[in-house]
Amino acid sequence: MPVMKSQSSEFRKSFLLMTLFILSMIVLSCENKVSYIPKSDLLTLPTQTVKDLETVLSDSGRIQMIMSAPLVDRYDNGDHPYSEFKSGIKVDLYNGQKNPVARVTSKYAKYTNADNLWELRDSVVVLNENNEKLETEVLFWNQEKDLIHTDRFVKITSEDQVTQGIGFESDSHLKRRRIFEVTSEIYLKDEK
Question: Residue 156 to residues 20, 107, 136, 146, 173: CA-CA distances in angstroms?
Fold first, then answer.
């Protein structure tokens, strides 16, 4: 009989040592993974994110504008709140008509609330009601002053003319426009 007690006692000791070893490995392998997030990092995150935005602006039941964007991030935490359209934007203007009379598209846009200023970048295209097309890489639109402008290359295509140049300003309808440095003018009727 004493032999059995010895084996049972040895088994218990081995089991106890193995259990202690496993528990100590578990305790030693754990670490506190909850880290402190600085307040400054939180301020860089958007306060609001909207996916597949479509906004309709109407006046007296008539559609004036439809703005759509795949993704919009709004940042309200800083001194200058803004909205960022990282995946692009499309704006159709109706002016009381059934079909859009003008369209603005770009692959990136940013709207700064305090300045009431739009910044459009990357493949900016503006079509007005006369079917004239403005193309550029960067365009700013000050809504209060009804002024669009850029210091970059622009190309304006109308029914009978293509004009290219550097620097541009105009009203939002492209009626009172000026290219600062015209680099080429091509009259399409002369080409036929």
Answer: 80, 19, 9, 19, 13
